[in-house]
Write the structure tokens for this entry.
Amino acid sequence: QVQFVESGGGLAQPGGSLRLSCVASGFTFSQSQMRWFRQVPGKEREMVASISRTGLGTDYADSVNRRFIITRDNSVNTVYLQMNNLKPEDPAVYYCNTGWDNPWGRGTQVIVSS
């Protein structure tokens, strides 16, 4: 059974940082590209970052490029999202997944407020 457990969200000030983690199970993690998504209530879920199986290739949405960094540790089936210079448009529930076809975890909420 494919599962994703996200954590690390919370309250940060504008310009601050948070580090999200996602532990995956139920599939061969090291053989799967991983992605972080976010969703604001009333809006569609959007992909913000992706990372290749080896971690050597990454891609980012324009809105988070140069601020967020996606990494992974295949030894512990975990993908991370380092979020720097948080902006007022970043609050959302953040999810990880391999793509759009697997079940979703509960996500972790990010709030940006002074």
